């Protein structure tokens, strides 16, 4: 992707809209939609790196109720010709065509390589990567199993969605409380993952979410690992101006 002069690429992750309740997450949703409106004037593209929703499951003819402001704004961006790329997270991994068909947004279920101007990026949500996260790796195999998804679809949406929302909020990782502290480079499994990938191929930037903690770590003189933080506590996001990438912070909602 060639970035036009004066344009930027924006990255955001881990909004967990709908948690802990729709009412309580509404100010955060409005804040996020306000940010999308602000960046619209100079965005060459927007990357959303997962857990936009705290729970999302697509039935054949139904999706979870709510998120009208967010979905409408994303449609507005794509209608204006601004490409949006979505990477599923561990809370919204059950996507099955709705974003592509209704919003024109491609959805990725694994990390992807992008070349933005002359910089090479590896981008993803970050769950299940590296040597850690073993509990989630086992859980993800169950959740992504075709039989598991088929069985869940037989639940009426009123039951299935309510059940999914309940267990999703019960997951303590939603707030990042269990992972909010920096563990040191040697114990950050996404840093270890990035270092191993550098042994196979050169990248300028590794960009992930999932950790709920803004991080900008130099891996080599030419390569950096960036974690985008979240829109629960930090309201942090990434900006690439065509030459370098920075972490920035949106003003917290009142």
State the gist of this model.
This protein is an alpha/beta fold. It is 31% helix and 21% strand. The longest helix is centred in the first third of the chain and has 18 residues, at 22-39.
Q: Which percent range fits the helix content?
A: 25-40%
CATH topology (level 3) name = Purple Acid Phosphatase, chain A, domain 2
Per CATH, which architecture? 4-Layer Sandwich
CATH superfamily: Metallo-dependent phosphatases
Chain-averaged pLDDT: 88
Structural class assignment: alpha/beta
Query: What string gives the helices and strands in order?
Result: EHEHEHEEEHHHHEEEEE
Spatial strand order of the main sheet: 4-3-2-1-10-11
How far apart lie the N and C ends?
A: 37 Å
How many beta-strand runs?
11
Number of helices: 7
Q: List low-pLDDT spans.
A: 173-177
Give a verbal description of the structure.
It is a single chain. The chain has seven helices and eleven strands. It has 254 residues and is of the alpha/beta class. 31% of the residues lie in helices and 21% in strands. It has a single domain, classed as 4-Layer Sandwich (Purple Acid Phosphatase, chain A, domain 2). The protein has a six-stranded mixed sheet. A five-stranded mixed sheet has the order 5-6-7-9-8, covered by helices on one side. The model is unreliable at 173-177 (pLDDT under 50). The protein has helices spanning 22-39, 68-79, 98-103, 134-143, 146-153, 157-170, 189-198; strands at 8-12, 43-48, 84-87, 107-108, 112-116, 119-123, 205-208, 214-220, 223-228, 236-240, 245-249. The radius of gyration is 18 Å and the shape is globular.
